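Intended use. Records like the one below are meant for learning the mapping from a protein sequence to its folded structure. Do not use them to infer anything beyond what is encoded.
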Amino acid sequence: MKHKPKLGQNFLVDDRARHAIVAALGDISERTVIEIGPGHGAITDLLAPRARRLIALELDHALAAELTFRFREQPQVEIVQGDVLDADLGALISSGETADVIGNLPYYITSDILLKLFAASREGLLARAVLMMQREVADRLSAAPGVRDYGLLSATTQMHAQVDSLFTLPPSAFSPPPEVYSTVLRLHFAARFRELGVDAAGFDGFLKQLFAQKRKTLQNNLRAAGFSADRIGSAWPGSIPAQARAEAIALEPLAELYRALASAEPVASED
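Structure written out for the chain above:
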C-alpha cells in the first residue's frame, strides 16, 4: 500500500477494529452514510452491504479510481473524488433526509472537518457520526469543564453533539503506523443553542472570545474583546465566580452570561 504523508494517510489494518467501528453506527440498513477518507476500503467493504446508500469521499485520485472500480457493480455505493472540506454535503444527501458520517480523520485537518460537520448538523443534514482521530484531540472533545483538556474545541463540540468515547487503537493498527494513538468517538448531533436560548453564530463567536487567552480570566478576555468593565459587571451572573477562567465553567452559565451581555446596554466607548 502506497503512503502519501502529505495526505495524512495511515490505513487501518486491524480487522477487529474495523468491524467495531462500523458496528458503532448501529443499524444503517435504511440510512445514507458518508464515509470520509475511505483509503483502500477497509471500512467501505463492511459498509457497502449494510447501508441503504454509501457515499465515500476520497481526496486521493488513485484511491478514488481503485474504489470506483471495486464497487462498480454496487449501485448503492458512490465514490466521490475530492476534498471533504470542499464538498457540498447538502447536495450529496437526498432532500428531506439525514445522513450518518464515518471516517478516520486526517490529523492535520481534524478540527476543520469537525466544524464543517457541526455546520451541516445545524442545517439538519446529519444525525450521528463515528469518527477516529488522534487520541489527544478526542480527549479534548470529550473533556468536561474544569479539567486540563477542556477548551474551545470541547465547548464547541458539546454545543453541537453528545460525545461518547468508544475505544483507543495503538499505532500498530495502521499501516504505516502513525506516531500517535487514535481514539474512536461517536457523536449524536443535537445542537443546544435553542435549549440554552442563544443564537448559533453569535454564541460561537462569544466562545472564541472567552477562550482567546486560556490563562486569562473570563473578565479579562471579555475586556480584550471590547466589553467595558461596567457592562461586564452589570451583566455578570452569580453562577460564575468573578475570577473564573472559561475552561472551568459549564456551557449553561456561559450562555447565561452571553444573554445578559446581549441585553445589557452598551456604553459609548463600545460603539
